[in-house]
Design brief:
single chain; about 290 residues; TIM Barrel; 8-stranded parallel β-barrel; 11 helices
Amino acid sequence: MGSDTDGVFDGIAPPLVVSSYTLGTEVSFPDRCRAAAAAGYDGIGLRAENYWDAQDAGLSDTDMLGLAEQHGVRILEVEYLTGWGTPADRNAAQQRKEQTVFAMARAFGVRHMNAGLIEKPSIGEITEAFAGLCDRAGDDLVVALEFMPYSGVPDIGSAWQIMHEADRSNSGLIVDTWHWARSGATPADLGPVPGEAIIAVQLCDVLQTPMDEPRAESLGYRLPPGEGYGGTLGMVRALRDRDVRPRLIGVEVISNELVSQGIDAAAQTCGDAARRVLADARSAVSTS
């Protein structure tokens, strides 16, 4: 697989991954693999909660790797690190989750982990905490910081400032269409950000009118890529023009409506939409 992304980012073909939330929270590991394979993805994403559910169902790491291989997909995304902003935020539950995400990444050969922060400490506190998180992850794992407009890291500028000032070699950034659109990002905002700093891209789209509760919108009312008002194609082109070469392209369409239609429909609808956006971006490359 992977040909769907050929030519978009300077000729490389990053794998297309169905992120965990796209298929819903109550999905067994075998069903995730099956639905992803049927819809033509290269891999799946897993949250710590999905991993624990699979363990509770009796699956070992080896079992999970074997099931994924049987379906012709890989485990390519693990997420996500939370509650790391201050020592008070790092309670026992969050510390367990952090260690689980580290273990997942190593067990499945995933080179980076998604990190987000809902709390809103100062930029200085977040920078120091992000540096500590990278140190705890170890040199073999990369921590990818995701900006979210309702969080302590609200936009790409603040995300880059934190990454730059933390000065850790095992750090990177994630750009997600929903957060890009709702933070009001423009291609010009990528100016200070080196292309190599952005190591993963997540595709979706947004409603025409923002909801009163942005986090609730983000966690249940996203649209398939290219089918909303977030300028997904323009974002992809802007990233390409900044020489971004992502390790993967995640399809993260968190939609209550799509999940209610079943995981097969959600996987196929979102995958097809992502491929259309990428094809349009590829066409723009070939005709330029």
